[in-house]
UniProtKB/TrEMBL annotation:
Enzyme Commission numbers on file: 2.5.1.145
Pathway the protein contributes to: Protein modification; lipoprotein biosynthesis (diacylglyceryl transfer)
Membrane association type: Multi-pass membrane protein
GO cellular component: plasma membrane
Record lineage: Bacteria, Pseudomonadati, Bacteroidota, Cytophagia, Cytophagales
UniProt entry tagged with the keyword Membrane: yes
Keywords: Cell membrane, Lipoprotein, Membrane, Transferase, Transmembrane, Transmembrane helix
Protein name per Swiss-Prot or TrEMBL: Phosphatidylglycerol--prolipoprotein diacylglyceryl transferase
Chain ranges passing through the membrane: 23-43, 55-76, 88-112, 185-204, 216-233, 245-266
Amino acid sequence: MLQYIIWEADPEIFHIGAFSVRWYGLLFALGFLIGMQIMTYIFKKEGKPVADTDTLLIFMVVSTVVGARFGHFLFYEPEVLLKNPLTVITPPFAGLASHGATIGILTGLWLYSRRKSSRATGQTFLWVTDRIVITVALSGAFIRLGNFINSEIIGRPTDLPWGVVFPRADYSGIPMPHVVPRHPAQLYESLSCLVLFFFLFWFWNKYKGRAPRGSMLGIFLIWVFALRFLWEYTKENQVSFENSLFLNMGQILSIPAVLLGIYFVIRSYQNPVTLVEASEPDGVKS
């Protein structure tokens, strides 16, 4: 009786000459497209100018890609970044770090919230982040599913019945043959993000402007990176230098993210200014 799953899916959907369309890229784009629809719905429900979602999308795409690329080289391949900084913004865009994407997104949203039109309509930094995390959680689920299809970020060997063999994976530096069943760590994270998406959307739909500002951002950071810390124990290290570390780079970077999330949650309930109050123009209180 088969006690494991063999995953041999082709990561490429189709290609025309040198141009290739891959499942990972499609899922990555789908996160932005569906996220755009969700934010449009939220803006309509809360009386914000829907036209601003176009600008918000641009900020999100640029900050996510640049942050993820810069984070990858800064945390995992600093020697490449020092030798050729333009690698961050030049193809092929192989190598994206979720911790770098988080930093990039928070920076991009801070810049977005500083715009004159954003301030005039009450789109403060915490107003935006407390809503954008809903879409980021869904995008995280899509991206990790894309990693699974690509047979990358593979897990450690396991004898569990849902272990997966990845014949297409790149096993360079990993002293294990292709036939060893492994944790589908990508799917663990994907499902975690999907659960978080549904919870955050329910939380927003139930409380909307009555939720303390910063609470949803804090919940997001705690959930994603606390579980990321745990899931790392089921993964193979991404780069060789991590083999000499007590905690791998993903775990090290997750600790400050969790602490930041705890800070936002505590702060939001110690100073329970609601998102409605925070988003009202100066001098106007309900």
